[in-house]
Amino acid sequence: MSKKELKGWLYLLPAMIFLGIFMVYPLIDVFVYSLEEGYNSASQTYFGVGLYNFSYVLHDTYFLQAVKNTIILVLITVPLSTGLALLISLALNSIEKLKDLFQTIYFLPYVTNTLAVGLVFMILFKKTAYTEGMINLLINRFGGKSIDFIDGPYWAKMFVLCFYTIWVVLPFKVLILTSALASVNQNLYNAAKVDGTSPFRIFYKITIPMISPMIFYLVITGFIGAFKAYSDAVALFGTDLNAAGMNTIVGYVYDMLYGNSGGYPSYASAAAIILFAIVLSITCINLLVSKKHVHY
Amino acid sequence: MKVVLKHLTKIFPNITKNLPDVIAVNDFDFEIPDGKLVGLLGPSGCGKSTALNLISGLLEPTSGQIFFGDNDVTKLPPENRGVGMVFQNYALYPHLTVLENIIFPLQNLKGDKKMTRERMEAKALEVARLVQIERLMERKPSEMSGGQQQRVAIARALVKTPNVLLLDEPLSNLDARLRLQTREEIRRIQTETGVTTIFVTHDQEEAMSISDLIIVMKEGVVHQIGKPQDVYDDPVNLFVAQFLGTPQINTFKGRVENGWLYIGEDKVLKTTGVSDQKVYVGVRPEGFILDENGPLHCRLSAVEVMGRDTSVVSFNDNMTGVSIRSIISAENKVDTSSKEVRFSLKPYKVHLFSMEDEKRLYFEEGVLK
To answer: Whole-prediction pTM value?
Structure first.
């Protein structure tokens, strides 16, 4: 090894040590845990090696519920939030006065604490002994019946969770898309205008393709983020998510480790590996699709 | 189709309150004849592109009118004017192929103008042949050279058979060789299609070489309109004289006394018809004749032999530029050991300008017979 090469490795050493201890080792460990059957964390012993942990997790109704919740959350929030963000950015880009003000307002949720936002949502949606909650008051006003969004039917709770998630992820997407829109070469629009292109055609033939790399970036990171959802559900429904029927995959992993029914690192690891596999395959599919549709 | 501008003015209100408004186009009032290639020429920031955008309809004039033929198009949006436009950076749609780029304007047509896909592709192929890119139809803009992209942009502008073709600095993004080739190409395409073409440039050589007519402007004001050679030979003021021609016209401070022009103490030329006053003297580089007994004395600096001609660089106390560059036939041998060089001047290559308003002062001997 030449001296120059040695120097290079030396510079890389600190980062490699930290990554090794805090990323690579735990990753391998999780994989090992997931294959150790009947692992006991107190005595650090196990009975054998095999796929039983995966089988257990995949037959656990709580896990299946968590997977269902997560997938519904992903399928609803990612397209909706991206679409909404696009609409808002287009609107922001077309106004001149007060643009900065609106941009700031739309960005506020991004800098607000998740739990604080959760509290606000409680006030909006939760039924207590004293009040029906803001939204229910509104529904009552228009002649509807009160709905318990926090402890009520599944669809109501899912609605609140999706609403909340979209609200939290929207600002970042608006920020990215507004700058993407602003960076489209104005002459392309001028050329289209001279050629008599209708606004709708300009939008889907020029604007969308020109910002498609950013849209795909947001969709991919959105998928990953939504699959990893956990704190949002906790902020709304408390820590006992299994009882509320609103657990997510990451929530399940956490519960298996530290929750009331916890203390099963092997099951938690198996669930984590399954989540990893899902996210990896979805991301690969996303990248393949984006290669076909992002043009340059 | 001829284009007529009537008192066309565009004022950009200044954003900062303390500064005056910018008058980008000031009272344009002229006619561009049908089927001609017209160069709109001026230094950077003089309002050429604004003028072009007014004609295309992308900008709305502050006052004045624009006619295409006999139709007042001042209030019409760009798509109803029938203009084709080529932008400085071409503005090709990067995600579409050449073919898709070219048929894009055709796909916008509505009503009875609507075309079938076959018809569009046939039209596209026709213009592609005209600009010689028919082999590149499936390429993306990023897979082509600047010159090829330029041709695609021209094809896209021509495919609708526009009334007027507008080109904004069409050659500025090309390298020197390609520029020469492309400008001839533009001339050829214009001649073949016969479409009235207006192009904007800051490069006087470009404008002179291919235009039927040039319009020289500065700071929003038109200074002179005419055939390139006429404007070159007969500039109306010092700005036009200095702007046209490479190497630039040589200027001196001089004076007219009793019908004679003096530069310093040298009595250089008889100038009948100009009253006694101080003047700027412009002498074209080709207006110098090497003459041992010539009246104009200069200090010799360098002689550059460039095959066909010789370029003599010299100094004079009364010059306003950094040096005097004269071009003489290579057959004349210059004595490089000498410190002094003497010239006599060709009267019709000498232009006098008033020191007050820099307007041209005409004298009898300077009229080309």
So the answer is: 0.78
